[in-house]
Design brief:
Layout (H helix, E strand, L loop, with lengths): L2 E2 H11 L12 E4 L5 E2 L1 E5 L4 H9 L4 E4 L16 H11 L3 E4 L2 H4 L5 H8 L2 E5 L2 E2 L7 E2 L1 E10 H11 L8 E3 L5 E11 L7 H4 L3 E5 L3 H14 L3 E5 L1 H19 L4 E4 L14
Parallel strand pairs: 4-5, 4-15, 5-6, 12-13, 13-14
Antiparallel strand pairs: 1-3, 2-6, 7-10, 8-9, 10-12, 11-14
Length: about 270
């Protein structure tokens, strides 16, 4: 039997329960009729003009975006505003939109878990375990099967992640020894002071701001702490899409599930001084 949007939503809830989302988050169905049939799904990190166009022109019935389009309140969805224009395009094309954000970060196969696995971390556990399920939670920390250096780990990340204008930024010595690595897909400077991060040799995350990063490095020089590897927010979470697509295909073999290859990182180029 063809899957309905309601069927897929049930699977989305099983894979990435909304109860696991942060209180400020807004995952779930944004637009779409749960009774309509779904045959093609597009997965993307961001619901932006390029990926919405990709969903519509490819005949997708459903777009699942990691980042919610309506994360913060809006007072208008007029079509001279980009969120209104995107929603109108999706509605006219009868393409539903679902967000799976922090609820997809914390599960066993979530964004940080996938990043940790692709880096080759063993025995990785959440940095901040869920209160009711220790296998789930924010971030991951584990050991490399073979120790390396901060510089070589940065190069590995550059090879692993899709290319972006900002690449991989590092704070620490190129030859600093690295065995224990903490990771957090997406913006992760809120975890810089966590003991599991401070006791790691390197911390891989995105969107590190000046003051938190500077303070973490100063503290590391005084009393120990990790080298920092700052990557693109989009790139750090894009790896998860393949894992999410596999889980959806396993649950609904008749569905065509496609991962968008479009780069939705907001930065186009940088000039190195």
């Amino acid at each position: 039997m063809p899957a309905t949007l309601a069927d897929v939503l049930s699977t989305v809830e099983r894979l990435w329960p909304v109860a696991g989302a942060e209180p400020w988050d807004a995952p779930g169905l944004v637009t779409g009729d749960p009774s309509r049939e779904v045959s093609r799904v597009l997965l993307a990190v961001d619901a932006v003009a390029a990926t919405v166009d990709e969903a519509v022109t490819s005949g997708s019935d459903l777009m699942i975006a990691h980042h919610p389009l309506l994360l913060r309140g809006v007072t208008s969805i007029a079509e001279d505003r980009y969120k209104g224009a995107l929603l109108a395009r999706l509605i006219r094309a009868d393409c539903a939109l679902v967000g799976a954000h922090t609820n997809a970060d914390v599960v066993e196969s979530g964004t940080s878990a996938v990043l940790a696995e692709r880096l080759g971390l063993v025995d990785a556990v959440p940095i901040v375990p869920d209160a009711t399920d220790a296998a789930r939670g924010l971030g991951r920390v584990g050991r490399l099967a073979e120790p390396t250096t901060l510089g070589r780990l940065a190069r590995r990340l550059a090879e692993l992640l899709p290319p972006t204008a900002t690449g991989v930024r590092a704070a620490g010595g190129f030859e600093d020894a690295v065995e224990v690595v903490a990771v957090c897909g997406g913006a992760g400077d809120s975890l810089l002071a966590h003991e599991a991060v401070r006791s790691a040799d390197a911390y891989v995350t995105a969107d590190l701001r000046h003051h938190p990063a500077s303070e973490a490095r100063e503290q590391a020089m005084l009393g120990g702490g990790p080298g920092l590897l700052d990557v693109s927010h989009w790139a750090s979470e894009w790896l998860w899409l393949d894992a999410a697509a596999r889980e959806l295909r396993d649950a609904h073999p008749a569905l065509e599930v496609v991962v968008s290859d479009l780069r939705t990182d907001p930065w186009d180029f940088q000039v190195v001084q």
